[in-house]
Amino acid sequence: xxxxxxxxxxxxxxxxxxxxxxxxxxxxxxxxxxxxxxxxxxxxxxxxxxxxxxxxxxxxxxxxxxxxxxxxxxxxxxxxxxxxxxxxxxxxxxxxxxxxxxxxxxxxxxxxx
Amino acid sequence: xxxxxxxxxxxxxxxxxxxxxxxxxxxxxxxxxxxxxxxxxxxxxxxxxxxxxxxxxxxxxxxxxxxxxxxxxxxxxxxxxxxxxxxxxxxxxxxxxxxxxxxxxxxxxxxxxxx
Lengths: 113, 115
Known about the structure:
The complex is a heterodimer. The radius of gyration of chain A is 13 Å and the shape is globular. In chain A, strands 2, 5, 6, 10, 11 and 12 form a 6-stranded mixed beta sheet that branches. In chain A, strands 3-9-8-7 form a 4-stranded antiparallel beta sheet, with no helix packed on it. Chain A is 0% helix and 54% strand. Chain A has no helices and 12 strands. Chain B has no helices and 11 strands. In chain B, the strands form 2 sheets. In chain B, strands 2, 4, 5, 6, 9, 10 and 11 form a 7-stranded mixed beta sheet that branches. The interface between A and B is medium-sized, with 21 and 27 residues.
């Protein structure tokens, strides 16, 4: 069965410090991996995706993510957090066959001024 | 600009009433999806459609119905059979096909509250 796990419901980080939001997955075949951000009462906004190639993917707003096949992980990172990064972050996976997406339960990031 | 439009943004319903949430996209995407979001539970798939006049149940289809008469439109009806309909509903779309590596595009959501 396909699944995505975000082990931390809440992550707090001081402004200016690096941040990491964790994601692990279980999917058959080669996965397509995605990160989304959601602000209160808004839809999800696409941040970045891994399809193939370089394991380090760069995305919007200075975010990046590292694909680790052996650990089946796709952690989201940013070198220096901003207060405006405070939001809900979702990891998602899709098998390279089919069109169904599977989402983690989300991680609430709070950046403390 | 291309995108997905959901309406209404906020909706209040009395128990026993059916309500229909609208979702329209101008991205020329074949696939469309409805998700339900509850606090702490992430996104759960209600229905999805990969082509006009065809749709499949997701993980929590009971108490919901959809139609896909046009490529651009995928309305969701929350029926009185849905026991706990208060939630945030998200519509999304994506490309399809064997070369598709694309992400989901989301609307701004509709918040339904049952009084």
